[in-house]
Every structure is written in C-alpha cells, then in structure tokens.
Write a structure and sequence with these properties.
Helix content is 32%, strand content 20%. The protein has helices spanning 7-18, 36-48, 72-77, 82-85, 135-148, 178-183, 231-246, 284-309, 316-325, 343-352, 400-420; strands spanning 53-58, 89-94, 103-109, 120-121, 125-127, 159-165, 190-193, 204-205, 207-216, 220-221, 253-261, 268-269, 272-281, 326-332, 338-339, 377-380, 397-399. It comes from Streptomyces cellulosae. InterPro entries: Peptidase_M20, Peptidase_M20A. It holds the Pfam family Peptidase_M20.
Length: 430
C-alpha cells in the first residue's frame, strides 16, 4: 500500500523538526532550550486522530534514578530539579488495557543530540536534527499505525501501546524514559524499538559502559616540568596501552578510546586530567569480562609507565606516583544487553516486510531494558541507517521513500499481529 506518509505527516515531521529537543546532557552553548513537552503534546494530538488515547504524559519520578545502572552524568544533572521536570515521556494506547499476550508495543525517542538546525524538505528528502534519529521514524510510525487502525481487530481484539520517550540520547540510555515504563508493565508480546536499522529487524541491542580514568596530581610551571605530575603524558600512555590491549580482548565487544583532556595552555604542566572510554557488548556476561579486562590492563599500564619513565628527567615524579594519583571509575556499568530469539515473531516481521538481521551486531539503544521480559519478543526496527543518514552529525537526513516503506511495514505488522491472536483466546473487556 502506498501513500501512507501523507501531506499531514510531512507537515507534522517538519513541525517536530523545527522544535528543538536536544537532550540536556548533550546541549552546548549554541543549542536552543528543549521544547520536548510541546513536541509530545503535538505528537499526542496527531496520534489521537488514529484513535490513540493518552495514558500518561508526565515527567519521571526522581526515584527512578536511585537504581543500579543509572549513569553518573544523569545523577549529577538531576540534582537540578528542572532536569527531570523538563524531560517527560508519553504513553499512548489504542484499545483497552489487555494482557501482554494481546498487546504490541512500539517505542520511539524524541530527544536528539546537539546541533539543532532549521529543517528542510525538497520533495524527496527531509534534513534536520532528528530527521532519522528519531523524529522521522516517530512520524512514520504514526502513519503506519493510523493505517493499521482501520483493521477491525486492531483495538477491538488486540491493543497497541506507543511509548514516545525522552532520555535516549546523551548517554542517558533510557534510564528515566523507557526503563520506568517497561518496569511498570507497559509492554507487549511483541515490542518494536524504532531506530534506524535499514528496515532490518535486529533482535539485539548492545549495552555500553563508560570508564573514566582520572589523574589527580600537581601542576608545575613549564620551566620546571619535573616538579609536577604530567597528566598529559600519563593519560596518553594509558590511552595507547589500553587501545592496543583491549582491541579484540573479548570477542563481540567494541572499545572506543574517546575523550582525553588535561588542559589548553602551553606554558604549564597539567597535573590533572581524564580519559574516557566507551565499551559496548552484545551479551551481559561479555560486559562483565570486558570490565575485568579494563581493570587488569589499567593496572598493567601503570606498572609499564613507571618502568618506562622512572629514569627520565622530566617525568620521574609522575612515574613514581602514577599508581597513587590515577583512579579508574565508571560513569555507567552493569547495563543489560538484548539478545532475543522467537521464530513466531521473526516470521511475523518477515511477512510484514522487515529485512533479516543477518550478521548485523546491532547498536546501543533503549531496547536493552526489554532484555528480561517474560513471554515477549523485542526487536529494533526502523528506516534509514545511523551512519549513512548522518545521525549525530551535520546534515542528518531521511528520505521520504524510506519513511513510506517503514509506515507500510508497521501497518502490515500490526494487522498480522491482530490476525495471529486466536479469536477464541481473546479476553475482551466486559
């Protein structure tokens, strides 16, 4: 079926793209304030045209951050009560509340990374922050659900849940958006997280942990570099050592040696600094192994640094005190990874037009919080690709044809799900 992504949805997407919704953890000095609450209101209004009722539109409770797995950056930001107050999530429902067996759930995030820019549409392609990640998929999802709602069984025999959440970007990883909704029971037999996958149905999502290596030493003037602790040399050594040792140390994991910062001036030795590493894994057990490897190799690197620089003139003090002034901490850790399998659900997705996952390892997104749901299957599915469509980069875009195709997949998936539930087993509300 063609023509699902009508002018109404084109206008809605441009409207949502115009309104900034940069996650506060991402925002820079040039980013406008987020208008996420307004975006969610407009999204709920458009969903009402397809018969969806707003079940909840509210900010998350502060208690949701007092949990294992919440990144330290989120905890720090939430010390300002405005942080959570300005980061609501939306829960919509088509049909009455039913058992998970008779419910299909879709999740999409409407916060973005930094770099808000005026949107454009040339008749073929939408550009703007969030075009593919994930305001474009969010609007295409609505288009598909509205088309599916014309099927008699949708809403009557099965229920559709729609989560439009905050807190996916900025390293928040759904800890105050998706996670509380799932833990409150708002999920289904089939759960679809709408992220750019090239319309491949990925039954997996990697999790990530962030290591923060901190050096807290003494500065010194450039005329006496030996008098201080050189955090630049020490952290640079650690970055190279860890990059070499951790590359492939645990199969199926990825290691990103990320930001290193000590200082910006040329006429002093900087005694303090940080090195960040992001570490992703496909299986929760692999994450535990990788954390052990990081801990071991940091200790090894410090010993090697001491041996290498102990007899130098400028870095002898740094070498002598390296272990004492260096600390390994974790901004986030202990997150679950999704690795799902269900022949029934996978066949349903294939019939609807979703492409096979093949060997795609997936990526980190909010779907990790669906890893331990009982009697449920979860997949990540959406139009466009993170890299090819320049998500998180200048010039982010999504093509109208891809949004149209995704809307069609959503329509067929919901209808096939409704038809697959045996009529005799449907428990209709009194």
């Amino acid at each position: 079926m063609s023509g699902l992504f009508t002018d109404r949805y084109r206008e809605l997407l441009l409207d949502l793209l115009r309104l900034p919704s940069v996650n506060p953890l991402e925002a820079g000095p040039g980013d406008p304030p987020s208008r996420l609450p307004e975006i969610l209101q407009r999204y709920a209004t458009a969903a009402a045209e397809a018969g969806f009722r707003t079940v909840r539109l509210a900010s998350p409770p502060a208690a949701c951050l007092d949990r294992p797995g919440v990144p330290s950056t989120v905890r720090a930001a939430a010390r300002d009560p405005r942080f959570l107050a300005e980061q609501p999530s939306l829960l919509l429902r088509l049909g009455p509340e039913r058992s998970h067996a008779h419910t299909v759930m879709f999740n999409v995030h409407l916060d973005t990374v930094a770099g808000h820019a005026p949107p454009a549409f040339d008749g073929v392609r939408f550009t703007g922050r969030g075009a593919v990640d994930a305001k474009g998929p969010a609007v295409a999802l609505l288009a598909g659900l509205r088309a599916a709602s014309s099927h008699a069984a949708v809403g009557r025999d099965v229920t559709v849940l729609l989560q439009a959440v905050a807190g996916e970007e900025g390293g928040a990883l759904g800890t105050y958006g998706t996670r509380p909704l799932l833990e409150a029971g708002h999920h289904g037999r089939l759960n679809v997280f709408c992220e750019p996958t090239g319309l491949r149905a990925l039954p997996r999502a990697t999790a990530a942990m962030t290591a923060r290596i901190t050096v807290e030493g003494a500065d010194s003037v450039d005329d006496r570099p030996d008098a201080g602790h050189n955090a630049t040399v020490l952290l640079g050594f650690l970055a190279q050592h860890l990059g070499a040792r951790l590359d492939g140390a645990v199969p199926g994991t990825r290691v990103c040696v990320a930001g290193l910062h000590t200082g910006r001036t040329h006429n002093r030795v900087h005694g303090t600094g940080t090195l960040l590493m992001n570490l992703s894994y496909r299986r929760t057990s692999d994450g535990d192994r990788l954390k052990t490897e990081v801990t071991r190799h940091v200790a090894e690197a410090l010993r090697h640094f001491t041996e290498r620089f102990a007899h130098t003139r400028e870095f002898a003090r740094t070498a002598r005190d390296a272990e004492r002034i260096t600390r390994l901490g974790w901004d986030k850790q202990g997150l679950p990874a999704l690795d799902d399998s269900d022949p029934w659900a996978e066949e349903l997705l294939a019939r609807a037009g979703a492409r096979p996952a093949a060997e795609d390892p997936g990526f980190t997104c909010d779907a990790i919080w669906a890893a331990d749901l009982d009697d449920a299957f979860t997949t990540v599915l959406g139009p466009g690709c993170l890299a090819a469509n320049r998500a998180h980069a200048p010039g982010e875009f999504v093509d109208l044809a891809d949004l149209e195709e995704f809307a069609g997949v959503v329509r067929r998936l919901v209808m096939f799900f409704a038809e697959a539930v045996p009529a005799a087993s449907v428990q209709r509300p009194p």
